[in-house]
Amino acid sequence: MERKRILILGATGSIGQQTLDVIGNYPNQLQVAGLAANSNWELLARQAEQFQVEAAALVNEEAARQLRDAAPRLKIYSGAEGLQEIVRELNPDLVVAAISGLAGLPPIMAALELRCDVALANKEPLVAAGQLVTTAANRAGVRLLPIDSEISAVFQCLQGEKIEDVEKVLLTASGGPFANYTKAQLSEVTAEQALHHPTWQMGPKVTIDSATLMNKGFEIFEIKWMFGLEFEQIEVVVHHQSIVHSLVQLRDGSVLAQLGRPDMRLPIQYALFYPERMANQLGRLDLAEVGSLTFAAPDPERFPCLRLAQEAGRSGQSYPTVLNAADEVAVAWFLLGKIGFMDIPRLIEQTLEEHEPFSVNNLSDATAADQWTRDFLGQTAADRR
Q1: For the sheet containing 94-97, what is the strand order?
Q2: Which residue from 45, 92, 197, 198 has the fewest beta carbons nearer than 10 Å?
Q3: Pair 297, 155 in one domain
Q4: CB atoms closer than 10 angstroms to residue 289
């Protein structure tokens, strides 16, 4: 049996590194066809050598130049266009999309045009352009496979079930590090505090999104578009233990749940081998050791990002694209110490209120909505000075 050829977009990030960890355990079944990242050329070079990769892409032009000097045998693609070029040149069996932000959308669309299956780890493409992505996947007759643990849980629960039998999805949220903070305490939160998630090890952007619950708002979009459900069918519940990764309630009242230790390598492995399940050496869940599982409703007053995501989703048109871009800018400003933690939802809400919506029918429309948001917030920053 031929090995499955996998291209990893975002190879140097948390998901990318864990994906390589999984692939390394199955050398006879999986092969790394190529690697792509933003700027970490040193780690990318080590990964390319370890997995005997012949092609790599770096968005940052200077980093690409340094990689060419350090690894002359590698075929290097550079710039934003390089992400699409490496997809088209390699034509892999599966593309793992783990690039943060809207930058991952063009190479995903390129993969779908080539009829490649795509394993989605980054939420932004389905938030900003969910209909574009799912329409392209359906047209090509290929699969969108979730890597997010919660979306993978829903995907696993739905195996063998009819989508019309789904009454609602119960999307679990860990609650982040500030689940018990008051609004006054939240206003004093620093970036250093917010980057320490109690359960998961993730990149800085998604870690902050988890702390604000925007991450959960984005996952609502993933479920809506990946499974063809309505926003009203998706309910968020806070589950601090991160053992139940999500649940599906069927119309007869049955509730299906997927449980497991909080280890991203499990949903990654499921996506890489779907529909097969493979034995592994990952730790096993011990419910007696866990002891108890608790659930609670989220507080929209303390965590307004969840409400903003739901409202943008229901409003449709270009609002979700603006939501995504505004969050990206606001989180970046927070990490730089330019704004406070509670300024993140405030800026997002202000941007959504000022936006004049339009239809997002193609990549150009999505790019235009994204650019409008960055221009608006750039002017907002200038006015604050």
Answers
A1: 75-78, 55-58, 30-37, 4-9, 94-97, 117-120, 144-146
A2: 198
A3: yes
A4: 6
User: Helix-strand-coil percent breakdown of the chain, rounded to 5?
Assistant: 50, 15, 35
Token pair listed for 255: 């509730």
Distance in angstroms (rounded) separating the CA atoms of residues 58 and 342: 34
The answer to whether 66 touches 41, Cβ cutoff 8 Å, is: yes
Instruction: Please answer whether residues 230 and 165 qualify as being in contact, where contact means their C-beta atoms are separated by less than 8 angstroms.
Output: no
The DSSP call for residue 236 is: E
Looking up tokens 């589950």 gives 239
Q: Is 155 domain-assigned?
A: yes
pLDDT of residue 199: 65
Share of the chain above pLDDT 90, in %: 91
What one-character DSSP code corresponds to residue 134? H
Kindly state the tokens that stand for 119: 């394993």
Please state, as a whole number, how many other Cβ atoms lie within 10 Å of the Cβ of residue 370: 24
pLDDT per position as a tens digit, 244-272: 999 999 999 999 999 999 999 999 999 99
Q: For the packed helices 343-354 and 304-315, what is the interaxial angle rounded to 10 degrees?
A: 20
Q: Is 355 left (phi over 0), alpha (psi -120 to 50) or beta?
A: beta
User: Do strands 234-238 and 94-97 pair parallel, antiparallel, or not at all (unpaired)?
Assistant: unpaired
Element (H, E) at 155: helix 149-157
Average pLDDT, the chain: 95
* Residue 208 neighbours by CB distance under 10 Å: 26
Biggest CA–CA distance in the chain, Å, is: 62
Residues 8-51: pLDDT tens digits?
A: 999 999 999 999 999 999 999 999 999 999 999 999 999 999 99
> Which residues constitute the domain of residue 357?
316-385
- Residue 331 in any domain: the answer is yes
Domain containing 79 — which CATH number?
A: 3.40.50.720
Residues in the chain: 385
For 3, the 3-state DSSP assignment is coil
